[in-house]
Every structure is written in C-alpha cells, then in structure tokens.
Amino acid sequence: MRGYCGKILEVDLTNKTCREYKIKDEVYENLLSGASLGAWWCSRRIPAGADPLGPENVLCITSGTLTSTGSVITGRWMAVTKSPATGGIGEANCGGTFAPYIKACGYDLIAFVGKSETPVYLYCDNNGPVIKDASHIWGKDTAVAEQMLIDENTVEGKKKPAACVIGPGGEKLSWMAGICNDNGRIAARQGVGAVMGSKMLKGIVLAGTKSVSGYNPAEIKKYSKISASRINAVMLPPEVPAGLLHLGKILPELQMSPDGIFTAVLMGTWGTGGASSFAAQTGEAPIKNWGGSQKEDFSAWKCNKVDGSQMLRLQTNRYYCYSCVYGCGGEIDISKIKHNDQGYKKVHKPEYESQWDFTGFLLNTDNDAMLFINEYCNRMGIDTISTGGAVGMAIEAYENGLLSKEDFGGLEMTWGNADSIIKFVKMIANREGIGDTFADGCKKATEILGPEFGKYGVQGGGTEPPMHDSRPDPQQALHYAFDATPSRHTSGGSLYYGCMHLWKKVSWAPPAVLIGSKEGEWKNYDEESLKVLANQYYKRLADAAGGCYFGFITGVANYPLFEWLSAATGWDRTPDDWMVVGHRITTMRQLFNIKHGIDPWSFRPHGRMIGEPPLKVGKVAGKTVPIDPMLRAAWKNAGWNEETGVPTQETIEKLGLDRLLNAPLEEFVYG
Fold first, then answer.
1. 43 and 158 share a domain?
2. b/e map of 212-229 (b: 16 or more CB within 10 Å)?
3. Mean pLDDT to the nearest integer, 374-394
4. What is the 3-state secondary structure (H, E, C) of 555-570?
5. CATH number of the structural domain spanning residue 327
6. Which alpha helices (H) appear in 87-165, and where do they start and end?
C-alpha cells in the first residue's frame, strides 16, 4: 500500500443510497489525500453558484495519506465543503482519535450529498455503510449525542466505534457551527457544522477494522523514532510555571525566532494556553476586539491573572490525539467553578484561541466564565473564535450607542461583564433574540444591522480572525488575505516560518531573519511573499498528509514530512518536488473560489487587522501592513494574475489542473 485506500464513499442523503468510487493513482500522485482530495471532490461535484446550505453542496470527511502508516503526529481529520460563511472553499481541521477510523472502513474520504427529510446518521463498518435514524439524538449536545451513538453501536467483544457529531448550533444552521469528536475536539471553522446540519445529518459512526500501511514501513518507523525522541527530549515537568516563558519576551525585542523544537516545550508542558500572557505582553494577542492595547486596556497584572497555564490546577490528565507523542491537550475538572449551571464536570482544557477570546479580547478577568463558555460552545458545537468575535462586535456596538440594553433583552453588554457575556453566548448558540443576528458571524450581522456596524465587525472574507494579531507580522496578515480559507492563523506567519526552517530543504524558500532587524518584512515584498508561499504550500502538504500544525512547526529536522511522504508512497521525490504538489493544491483551492464567484480582493482583512488606522499606543502602535503590494507580489509569484488573484492559464496547465478539474470524472475512477 502507499498510504491511501484508493476509494471514496459518496452518500446520497436524499435517495438514501451509497456508492463507492475507486480512485486512480493519478489523483493521489498529484494531490495526495486528506484536505486536498476533499477540495478536488468538491471542485468536481459542487456546481457553480450552489447554495452552501442546499442539497447540491457536498460535505467531505477525510483523513490524510500518512494517517495509520506509523508516522507520528499525523492523526488529523478534515471536513471540506463550500462554506456558508465565505461562499468559497471551506475547510476545518480536527484532532482526536477519529481520523484512523475513516481509513479502517476502507476509504480516504466520505462525501455527503443531498438532504434527508428526517434526522439521520451514517454507520459504516467492514460490511459497508448504512444510513440510520437519528431522531432520538436530534437536539442533544455534542457530548451526549456522541456517547449515545457509540453506546448503541458498540458490540460486546469488539473494539468501540468512533463518532463525530454536530450540536444544536449545527442543527440551527449557525455559520459558526463545527463538527465534534472525542467529547469536545472540534473541526470548528468555516461553518462546516451548518452544512452537516442542513443535510439533517447528525453524526457519523465508524467501526471498520481494515488495515492500511505505507510502502516502506521500516523507513517510516525510523523517522518516527527520530522525531519522537527529539520532541520528548525537550519536555518539562508540568509543575514548571509557564511564567518561565515570559523571560523569552526579550526575544522579540532582539528580533530573534526560536528553534522550532522549543514549541514542543510549550505545547507538551502547558498546552496552547500557556503562552497567552506572553502573547498579550508582546503584542501578539489582540485586545478589546482589536481596538485596544495591553498598555491602556489590559495590564500585565490582568494578563497574568488569566494566563492559560493556570488551568493546570484543574487538570486531571493529559490528552493525546491519535499518533501524538507529546500531548498538548488536557482534561480538566470544572465541576466547582462559578457559572456552571449545566453541571459540567470533566472536560477538555481550552486552547489558547478560546482562552484568550473570552478573557483579554473582551477585557474579562473571570477565568471561570471563560472555562464555562469554552465547554458550552463545544457542547453546542460552535466555533469559539467566531463566537468571541461576534461578542466583541456586540459589546462595541452597545458601548457606542448603536444597540441598547433593550436590544439585548436587558443585558448590559459592557467590556468584561462576565455574566452578560455568558448569557449573550447562549443567545447566539440558541438563535434567541438578537443572538440570532450574530449567529452567522460579523459579516452577516453587519449586512443585517447596517454598514455603520462594520467598524466593529472584525472579519476578513466572512471569517472572524483568530487571536493572533497581524499588525506586528506582515507575513501573518498576508496569510490572512492570501489563503482560500481567509483569516486563518494555521496557514503561517513570521514566527512559524522561522520555526520550520523550510529553507534548509526547499531550494527556493528564503531564509528567515533569525537575528537582527526584520524591517525587510515590511519592504521586501517579493522575498516575503516567497516565504508565505513556501509556508502555504507546506501547510497544504501537511493537510493532505493528516499532519498536525504543532508537529510541523517543530522544524523540518524534527518533523520529517517530506521523508515520511516518500516512504509512505514509494515515490522518490525531493522536497522541491513535494512543494510542487503543495503549489498545485493551493492553486486548486483558489480555482474553487473563482468558480464560485469569489473576488480574491474581498478577502482583504478588516482595517483593524492591518492597522488602518494604526493604534496610537501599545506594542503595535503606528503599525500599518502594506497588504496590497504584498498580496500582488504573492499572486504574481504563485503564477496568478497579480491584479486579480486569478491563476493564469499557463499556471493551470503547468500544474496539470486543467485535466484534473475538467476531464470527465470517468477518467479518474475505476468501475
């Protein structure tokens, strides 16, 4: 085997039928599997202009080429569809233990088309797929629904199945809804849960036991041992305070980027929330809905008070996704916190995004409120990043007199008002009152309420940005604008690029400035765009492989993605060869958006994200990112029209995309 199963299962929920497609090697040789296979299938199967919440849309659930081959930190699964939030390609990436079960059923991808008239779920094992009634779990939260599906499909003496589900947020078609597995791990972004809900599909239960392997298992194992040993060698005991990292705040002042292996120290010891205070104090974490600063609005004392590492006092055990070797997650006991009117007990520790979104971003110092909101959003199946952005918009609209206390049903929507924030989050999740207006995100809320609200509705291309400020990092801003799924921090940035050291293996990737002035990032558009493109292409490869972002930012010496891919597929390719695959995937995703009428300029970030106008105080004071010339340079160097962002015909033909996207489907399938 070459790391992939060679089959796609398409489930027609309208007609209650299932069909297998055996996919030829040509597709995998050009695109691998994972998110890229999903983007290819969506490109082929979704007609231009299709309603994202209509039966013509396709929802793909897929795992990567390296998953289950013996490589480490390669257990991600992806949901790919047409996004209701952006109107273009939608992708959401998730950890947990669900990914290998897709391949254990014999498929690289499961696609859903049509729409059921009643709630259903898909069950699949070695005997094939069955569509079952889900009326009894419709309306249940994600944790309850997932457990019910697992329990009723568990056979004594056999391995328990895995399941992913949507919550009430997806059922109510919130554009901020995601898909959950493992009791709270969520493929959260781009409204993929709303698409699943529009099809009346509550969940997917997988119980296959088929094996999969790579072409050269011994070679894969060799590199996995090297990777695991290097990462485990830098782990610290969990009792070491995350405040130790704050000594590293001198690094940005010295304009240095750390070696990527040290990211494992953070992830493995404290989890992603461990650096929240550090991020805020260095200007990397946005404050007060992108309109404030640590200097004026959220002091160092407040930052330390809500630092994510404090959650370790509630941690009961670490959590490892499938094939992970350092376990950035954790389970915590929140049974005794304030605000817990739902009786939540043992839950997943919030990630940095969720933790900061509901503390410093909203000027809230009530950690218990943040812990409750994180779990509530997970249970309802909605994205914490977009929810936090919507709350920030609502608070500013209230503070500036555009919305009243009566509009919010009696809530005083002021900065840091934990009780009101919690109640408003519940209104959003349940589409109650004015919460319904904000349930589809800031762009839609602005369209409903009026253009004067747009100043406070921070988004780019229909997506609320994450808790990574792009004003001090032009590369980050360019990723937000360039990516076919906009405002996405997991595409890359200057710090991430410096950690990966791609230039050590990719001939055309410019080296990062590790010591010395980084002023060139604001001026050298061609060179900076090449860094962003290298980062983008590499990320597309990782998503095709099932790789984890926290794995590959440890650096190419510690996370041998190129070597694993060659060993798994048996294709003896150089890193430059593999990057061509990343370029092809990146361009294909852009072509999907063009097909569906997206103007690439519409992904230009909100003014606050790029310093238009710049802040007057704080770490990002006076910073304005020259996003327009940077974006033109990136389009040009990607082989796209530098004024429109549309891939040129020459590039399309050079990458073989004309055939992959337009030749009859019968040329790519058997039988």
1. yes
2. bebbbeebbbebbebbbe
3. 98
4. CCCCCCHHHHHHHHHC
5. 1.10.569.10
6. 99-104, 142-152
In the listed set 157, 179, 206, which residue is the last one of a domain according to the structure?
A: 206
Domain edge (last residue) among 153, 184, 206: 206
pLDDT per position as a tens digit, 582-640? 999 999 999 999 999 999 999 999 999 999 999 999 999 999 999 999 999 999 999 99
Q: CA torsion, points 145, 146, 152, 155, in degrees to nearest 10?
A: 180
Angle between helices 561-569 and 217-232 (to 10 degrees): 160
Residue at token pair 């503070």: 399
Same domain, 508 and 438: no
CATH of the domain at 511: 1.10.599.10
List for the chain the helix, strand, coil content (%; round to 5): 45, 15, 45
Q: Residue 298 in contact with residue 617, Cβ under 8 Å?
A: no
Q: Token pair of 312, please?
A: 């370790």
Which residues fall within 8 angstroms of residue 323, CB to CB, at 6 or more apart?
67, 71, 72, 73, 74, 75
CA atoms within 13 A on the CB side of 472: 21
User: Looking at the chain, how many residues does it have?
Assistant: 671
Q: Examine the domain organization and report whether 402 and 523 are in the same domain.
A: no
Residue with structure tokens 């990211």? 263
Indicate whether 433 and 542 sit together in one domain: no
Number of compact structural domains in the chain: 3
Q: Are residues 484 and 615 located together in one domain of the fold?
A: yes
Q: Is residue 248 pLDDT above 80, yes or no?
A: no
Selection from 66, 110, 37 nearest residue 551 by Cα: 66
Whole-angstrom CA distances from 39 to 58, 184, 402, 544 are 10, 25, 40, 10
- CA gyration radius for the chain? 23
What local confidence, expressed as pLDDT, does residue 326 receive?
84
Do 379 and 414 lie in one domain? The reply is yes
Q: How far from each other are the two terminal CA atoms of the chain, in whole angstroms?
A: 20
Are residue 434 and residue 492 in the same domain, yes or no?
A: no
Pair (550, 631) in one structural domain: yes
Summarize pLDDT for 55-87 with one digit per residue, the tens: 999 999 999 999 999 999 999 999 999 999 999
Element (H, E) at 81: strand 77-82
pTM of this prediction exceeds 0.85: yes
Distance separating alpha carbons of residues 664 and 233, to the nearest angstrom: 51
Q: Which residue has the tokens 């009643």?
A: 118
CA distance 219 to 215: 9
Q: Is residue 342 part of a domain?
A: yes
- Per residue in 541-587, pLDDT tens? 999 999 999 999 999 999 999 999 999 999 999 999 999 999 999 99
Do residues 360 and 297 lie in contact, with contact meaning Cβ atoms separated by under 8 Å? no
Residues spanned by the domain of 567: 474-663
Asked, for residue 383, whether it belongs to a domain, the answer is yes
Say how far residue 668 (Cα) sits from the centre of its chain.
Answer: 29
